[in-house]
Design a protein that fits this description.
The complex is a heterodimer of chains A (111) and B (115).
Chain A lengths: L3 E3 L4 E4 L4 E7 L6 E7 L6 E7 L2 E5 L2 E6 L4 E6 L8 E8 L7 E2 L3 E6 L1
Chain B lengths: L4 E3 L2 E4 L5 E6 L6 E8 L3 E9 L2 E4 L8 E7 L2 E6 L8 E8 L9 E2 L3 E5 L1
Parallel strand pairs in B: 2-11
Antiparallel strand pairs in B: 1-3, 3-8, 4-5, 4-9, 5-6, 7-8, 9-10, 9-11
The chains are: A mainly beta (111), B mainly beta (115).
């Protein structure tokens, strides 16, 4: 079993829709949770990160972590075609330890 | 800041040949990570260095893979001999301990095709 599981999709939604992306993890030692966005033929870029359980909002993006159920979510409101990318969840125990990634979900926002 | 620089961007080689991938981390970053990305397995950590010293190489798939970091501004990942199943995109990333959790900067990757 992978430490971080993510449905690879693909996921296709119309412009303006609310998008929900989800991951589960198995390692209870994970304390930091991240979402990376990766455009085609580019490296991943950090989108959001949260520490422990809770919500974090940044513009149209909201990240949620529920440590009791080991569940990580990313919500995108008012989705735009420019949001079309692969979204990767990641987790780490902290410090400069290695990131463990989910497989990534390919998202397409249709105009 | 030029970011993390990887070369080459694309590499096509024949099975059995030696392949060397190169990475220049961001100046001042003391951690360097090598990841491999495939459709089937996603992003997998191969090895990471701290202050040029390998810390965890448990993700290196087999002895055909080796990585070095001779100085703070350069690292290589070598595959010898290469096999078709090594075809993937290889990413290098760097960070500092103080960059905050999540402060990894990735390069644009090297797309390797072994035929």
């Amino acid at each position: 079993q992978k430490e971080v599981e993510q449905d690879p999709g693909p996921l296709s939604v119309p412009e303006g829709a609310i998008v929900s992306l989800n991951c589960t993890y198995s390692n209870s030692a994970f304390q930091y949770f991240m979402w990376y966005r990766q455009y085609s033929r580019k490296g991943p870029e950090l989108l959001m990160y949260t520490y422990s359980s809770g919500n974090k909002e940044d513009g149209r993006f909201t990240a949620q972590v529920d440590k009791s159920s080991k569940y990580i979510s990313l919500f995108i409101r008012d989705s735009q075609p420019s949001d079309s990318a692969t979204y990767l969840c990641a987790a780490t125990t902290g410090g400069a330890q290695k990131l463990v990634f989910g497989q990534g979900t390919r998202l397409t926002i249709n105009p | 800041d030029a970011g993390v620089i990887q070369s080459p961007r694309h590499e096509v080689t024949e099975m059995g040949q030696e392949v060397t991938l190169r990475c220049k981390p961001i100046s001042g970053h003391d951690y360097l990570f090598w990841y491999r990305q495939t459709m089937m397995r996603g992003l997998e950590l191969l090895i990471y260095f701290n202050n040029n010293v390998p810390i965890d190489d448990s993700g290196m798939p087999e002895d055909r893979f080796s990585a070095k970091m001779p100085n703070a501004s350069f690292s290589t990942l070598k595959i010898q001999p290469s096999e078709p199943r090594d075809s993937a995109v290889y990413f290098c990333a760097s960070r500092t301990r103080d960059s905050g959790t999540g402060g990894y900067t990735f390069g644009s990757g090297t797309r390797l095709t072994v035929v």
